[in-house]
Amino acid sequence: MRRPACLLQRVLAGAALIAGATLAAAQEKMTQLEDLVAAYRILAEQGVIDAYGHVSVRSSTNPQRYYLARSLAPERVQVEDILEYDLDSKPIDARGRESVIERFIHGEIYRARPDVRAIVHNHSPSVVPFSVSGVPMRAIWHMAAFVGEGLPNWEIRDVRKGTNMLVSDGVLGASLARTLGTKPATLMRGHGSVTVGESLPRAVGRSVYLEISARMQMQAMLLSKEVTYLDAAEAQAATMPQDYSRAWPMWREKALARAKAEVKP
Known about the structure:
Elements: H1 2-45, E1 54-58, E2 65-69, E3 82-86, H2 104-112, E4 118-122, H3 128-133, E5 153-154, H4 170-180, E6 185-188, E7 192-197, H5 200-223, H6 232-239, H7 247-262
Helix pairs in contact: 1-5, 1-7, 2-4
């Protein structure tokens, strides 16, 4: 008579475990989507992206998937605007929502870089001049030490001439990913840049400080031809602890507060 009771207990315990795991996975996904909403709004607030530009995060449960907002001005993004994609950048369930044209940037970099968990593409105004002038970006201060001795610069003409400069398919995306290589960022000639990170806070922080670093480098170069940059050892030492753990919670809290205030009751 005991065995059925024991069996029932095991079944109920198993069901509870499954339900608990499902709930935990749902909560984890919601947190990840809220983080992504915050990232969009942080980058808009910091002047890194305006009506254009986008940020993605690799799924925490399936590394062959990533999340990216639909085609929408970044500072208007809410959780319901976020779509899930496979690495071919095909939406899993679009439900009539329009995808951004340059989603292939994200899919191809995630495919090429298993270490990357988040990607930002933007047109930040102080970075673009470095992509067309031949002047390399250098690490001018510790907050952007990841720039190191310089960043690669992707030339779309090497793949296809006469384009509208957009990364509109997987071929262009794969070429961009190859130029990025193992670096934390790459410039895009006449277009902008891509910044990646092992976490969403790191990708967002790098994007913010890359724009500031470009501005500061131009200011320093106007002041003097003899600019003292971080050397390789300093850049490496300063890059290691840069997870922006102090800035991210502050940025996130403010961004989500604004997002919630915009939701109509």
